[in-house]
Amino acid sequence: MQTLDVTLDVNGRTHSLQLDPRTTLLDALREHLGLTGTKVGCNHGTCGSCTVHVDGRRQLACLVLAASAAGRAVRTIEGLAAADGTPHPMQAAFVAHDALQCGYCTPGQIMSAVSCVEEGHARTDDEIREYMSGNLCRCAAYPNIVAAIADVARAA
Amino acid sequence: MDGGIGLPVTRRDAPGKVSGDAQYAADFPHAGCAYAALTTSSIARGRIVRIDTAQAERAAGVQMVLTHRSLNEGLGEETFAMKGGHMQSSFLPLTSDEVHYAGQIVSLVIADTQEQAEAASRLIAIDYDAQPASASMDDGDRVEKPLESKSIDVGNANAALAISPVTIDATYVTPAQHHNPIELYATSAEWREGRLLVHVPSQWVMGTRMGLATIFGIPAEDVHVECPYVGGGFGGKATILPHTVLIAMAARRLGRAVKLVVPREAMFTVGSFRPATRSRVRLAAERDGTITAVSHEQAGQSATIDHVSFAVTEVTARMYASPNIRVRESTVATDVNTPGFQRAPAEAPGFFGFECAVDELAVALGMDPVALRTKNEPARDPVGNLAWSSRKLTECFARGAELFGWSRRTPEPGSMVAEDGALIGYGCATACYPSASGPSAARIRYSADGVCIVSLSAHDLGTGAYTVMGQIAAEVLGVPNHLVRVQLGDSTLPSGIIAGGSVTTSSSGSAVHVTALAVRDALLRAAGGGELVDGFVVSPDGSRRPATEVLAECTSGFIEETGVWKPDSISDKQMQNGLAGGMAFSSALGKYATYSFGAQFAEVRVDPLLRTVRVHRMVGVFDCGRIINPRTARSNLAGGMIWGASFALLEETQIDRKRARFANTDLAGYHFSTNADIGEVVVEMLDGSDTLANPIGTKGVGEIGIVGMPAAIANAVYHATGVRVRKTPIQVEDLLV
Ligand code: FES
Ligand code: FES
């Protein structure tokens, strides 16, 4: 099998992997690094459950080839909490506002939500709704997701 | 006490879900795992005449290619869940060369990596002998097959319809829909010394265990189904999907763990879906709004391979006090994968037509739709004359109208206009869902360190079961919330109930309740009598000591009890079957008629030129008996209401009628609400325990949220525009008239 040597920087740690060139960043995280917090809901960019940060911007890991993420800083849900384990304010807000039900879209929602606030797209509830609409939630926790993000945005 | 019944306890599983630690089916590691990829049929009916797998078998990394020619294992008899088995369908793909529906699994490639399996699966060449097929119940050659056992006649509805001064006669249609949970179907299977370990998202781990044991001819104890979290079920993960059997079989042959994650496109055909419906509703009334006849005839889409019916009319027949009631059910067989349960399977589509017709009657009478419903509120079940275990629908409407501001509504369509020129529409509808229950077991261990562990193989699909089950135990034992642990979703635990029909809290919650009582009694026996108050044993002489002190004196350091609960109408034999993994439910119609009720309101805004519809806000007030946790129940009900908004305006599995297949099989083409589609959602639950329903006084919560919403929105669209749309989804083109 033809493989590529790929060095990934994930949550501040460096991983050297030998990957099939077709491997997506999503599969590299989940199947090769065991970082299964990033979820798979469609594999073609329509659900948002695979959202991670690449060089500080939200990206759909299913649409990124692992090889093309080499040398870039990848952050996943597992890397969001502080070093001492204190949850990120967005994680805490999701718990506090019951912004999840089944929890499957939740890691993607949270990664997106962190970016949404950082991008300055959380000034009003309507703006949050708009900029969070790439993250589907079939359980439809939307009202509580908006409340959680608005809370964090206010504190920021 | 901070963790008992009625408190808004924070979701116990939330920390693990926001950190990424919660493991769903496809997240469990299996050492040396091989990966599977599916190929599905490109025709809807016929036979496979040639299947060439040579190239695929030679491809890099490929370990095995399974087709109908290579699958030759003898399998135990299992069947469709609605025929008493555990399977999603009575047909297992790869067991013959026949093709019964488009998207049927025709081969399975197993390789060392996911990429290799997918690449090799594209190398399989198949020739078919295609036969004409039909996937739509509207195709000309399809016939309605009556289901006589579902007919109800009270008085003479036809005669009343003929003589009543005000009548409505209209037909409403709803399309096929798919569950589309965000978590894809996935199965990992591994055999260890003749025992099967399966990770699969499941709403029924005990049923899955029993079904797989039957199929593979091994004792049930040798099948371990582990599934602590389900990434959305909505009915789609209630039964064993065929690929789970195939993956377990492949793993056994290879002597290696095998994992399949089903692609989103294949989700539309490897599992079930909500079938299309057609409802003719006729209503008659006196001029003062007294309903004199209710007639509801529903036809539902079924499959040629499995007869499936979701009869809603036994519920709609009971909504209003009419002396004349007539309902009929029928099915229309089509060449599709077997339809199945999807959130309020019968009620969501059936109430759309029925509750729109009630609105049409209100318009014809010139009467307020809330007043019309309230006027015809039945004191008893109008079909069987049973007493209601509880029915607070009138209170729901009164409170809902107040919360919503219904009194601001001016009845004339198009008479309410927003500042930006949008047409405002107010609509409402009744929601109802039968409250059934079934046998369940539970185990509780209460230890000297104060920790209380509640274990049972029920499921938390996002419904709140992890939280609620612990609260029910804490209520009895007075354990503080942070010391309560709950284990669910594992077939090695005492038997919980299927997560279907909104039965979990009533059934498994009752089992936890009786088990907690047994633990309490054992504790008090160990203490030599007294009472348990807030975690303290209070002796008859008034002295108090912590329960943990008594537990420390027990030789084991804990007290553990396993208890079972069943509804009265379930026999011991049915209970044993249910606990082993069979289907065992009481009916909502026993000594009493037991249903959850709701009054639902919607405000829509319609663009006067573009005719786009937005749901501005929704209000739902529900009578679901006692609410164990208002926080998780509210989220569940709100989620259901948003499902209703999707149903009304977005959801449709389109059918390519020429090729007899589903056409929009991905999330770009199959629409449901995104965050930006949803405005304000207000949910309120009326207080009140229904102790006639079960010992904890609960009725179902999980499904009723969706039931009235499609009609409430359609009725609001009529109020905004004057256009009566009798189909879902309601789209721009329906309003361009
Ligand atoms: S899995 Fe990447 S967007 Fe759905
Ligand atoms: S919480 Fe279930 S999909 Fe969002």
Biggest sheet of chain B, in brief? 7 strands, mixed
- Mean pLDDT score of chain A: 97
Q: Enter the CATH topology name of the largest domain in chain B.
A: Aldehyde Oxidoreductase, domain 4
Number of DSSP E strands of chain B: 29
Please explain how this structure is put together.
The complex is a heterodimer of chains A (156) and B (737). Chain A folds into 2 domains: 4-79, Ubiquitin-like (UB roll) (Roll); 89-155, DNA polymerase, domain 1 (Orthogonal Bundle), CATH 1.10.150. In chain A, 32% of the residues lie in helices and 16% in strands. Chain A contains 5 helices and 5 strands; from the N terminus they run ββαβββαααα. In chain A, 58% of the residues are buried. The model of chain A has no long low-confidence stretch (mean pLDDT 97). Chain B is of the alpha+beta class and 737 residues long. Chain B folds into 3 domains: 14-21 and 438-580, Aldehyde oxidase/xanthine dehydrogenase, molybdopterin binding domain (Aldehyde Oxidoreductase, domain 4), CATH 3.30.365; 25-133 and 188-270, Aldehyde Oxidoreductase, domain 3 (Alpha-Beta Complex), CATH 3.90.1170; 344-376 and 386-435 and 589-735, Aldehyde oxidase/xanthine dehydrogenase, molybdopterin binding domain (Aldehyde Oxidoreductase, domain 4, 2-Layer Sandwich), CATH 3.30.365.10. Chain B contains 19 helices and 29 strands. In chain B, the strands form 7 sheets. Chain B has a 7-stranded mixed β-sheet. In chain B, strands 7, 8, 9, 14, 15 and 16 form a 6-stranded mixed β-sheet that branches. A 4-stranded mixed β-sheet of chain B has the order 17-25-26-29, sandwiched between helices. The longest helix of chain B has 23 residues, at 504-526. Chain B is globular, with a radius of gyration of 27 Å. The relative contact order of chain B is 0.14. The model of chain B has no long low-confidence stretch (mean pLDDT 97). Bound molecules: FE2/S2 (inorganic) cluster (FES) (2 copies). One FE2/S2 (inorganic) cluster (FES) sits between chains A (100-106, 137-139, 141) and B (182, 232, 462).
